[in-house]
Amino acid sequence: MKEFVDTFFDVNNFIVSKLKYEYSSDGKKEYHITYNVNDDFIPIMGASMISVLENNQDATLVFHIFTDGYSKENAKKIEEVAKKWNCTCIIYKLNMEPFHDFHIKVERFSRITYARLYMPKIVKEYTSRYIYLDADTMCVASLDKIWEMNLHGAPMGAVSERASAVDYRAGYLHLKGGKYFNDGVMLVDIPCWEQQHITEKAFSYQCEPRKRFLGQSQDVLNLVFDGTNFFLPDDYNVYDGGEYDRGHSVIVHWTGRRKPWQMVVSSFDEQWRKYNTLSPWPTITNIRPVKKPENYHDFKYWGRYRKEKGYIGDYLTGMFWYGILKIRYKLGI
C-alpha cells in the first residue's frame, strides 16, 4: 500500500485553477452537485446539469465541476448555464500528477475519474454534503429526498450493483462483506468522510497491480468501504438508461455501452435529448445506431422502439440492418 508525506493532500497540490460563475438567487434551499469530466465530455455533462436544474427549480443549485482541462468555449457555455438558470458553477482544473499512480483499466477512461476520491477536501469549503453524479446520468425528479436522507453515520451512500455484478465483482476483489456498489451516484457526508480518512485510504491503492482490479475508482472505493457505506434505494441510480425503471426513478444512469447521444431507443433517451436541446451545447439529432457489425443488436432495439411509436418504415429499416450487420459480425467482415 502506498504511503504519502503529510503535505501530499494539501489542496494547493491538487488545484491548478478555479473559475467561479455565481448567479444564484438567495433564500432558497441549496443543493451541491459534483462531476468529474474531461473537456470532450463536458457537453454530455451539460445535459445532466440541465436535467438537475429543470427538476429542482425550487432549489439553488451549486455545481462543482472537476476537470483535467477545458476549452474557453466550454467554459463560456457553462457560464451561460449559470446565467440562464440562476445557479452557481465552479470549474476546478486539477493537477493530475497526484493521480498518476492510479491504474487505468479501461482505455477509454482517463484518470480524471479518480477526482471523485479527492472532491470532499475541496467542496467542504462550501457545504457539508453533496451529490456526486457521473456525466451520463439524468435527473428525472426532485432531489429533495436524497438530499435529506439519513446516512446513519456512514460517509457515503450509493446504490448496490445488480446481484450478478455484486457476486462477480465482490468475489474478484475478495470483499469480506460480499457487497458492491456503483459509484456513478453518491451522496457524500464530508465531515464523516474526512473523519474516516476515506480519501487517504483510497489513494493508498495507488501502484497496486492493474490485474487486481476490474474497474477504476469504483473498485478502489469498494475496497475502502467493503460494504460499510450506506446503500441508497435503487431509484437513485437506475441502470442501463432506465431499463430497470419501476415508475418512480429519480436518477437514470446509462451504465452500459449504449448512450442516449448515440441513438434513441427509449423514452428516457428522448428525455435526455430534450435536456441536450435546452443546453447551450450543440443539439444532437442522430437517432439511429452507427452501422457497425458490433452494433447489430442496437438496430433491433431501435426498430422495435420506432415501431411502438408508429414508424413501421423505421422498424423495417432497423430489422434489415440488424440482419445484415449480424451476419457481418458472425463472419468477421
TrEMBL record:
MF term (GO), any: metal ion binding
Transmembrane segments: none
Metal-binding among keywords: yes
Record carries keyword Thylakoid: no
Top-rank taxon, per record: Bacteria
The protein's Enzyme Commission number: 2.4.1.58
Keyword list, A-Z: Glycosyltransferase, Metal-binding, Transferase
InterPro entries attached to this UniProt entry: Glyco_trans_8 (IPR002495), Glycosyltrans_8_dom-fam (IPR050748), Nucleotide-diphossugar_trans (IPR029044)
Protein's recorded name: Lipopolysaccharide 1,2-glucosyltransferase
The species this protein was found in: Mitsuokella jalaludinii
Phylogenetic classification of the source organism: Bacteria, Bacillati, Bacillota, Negativicutes, Selenomonadales
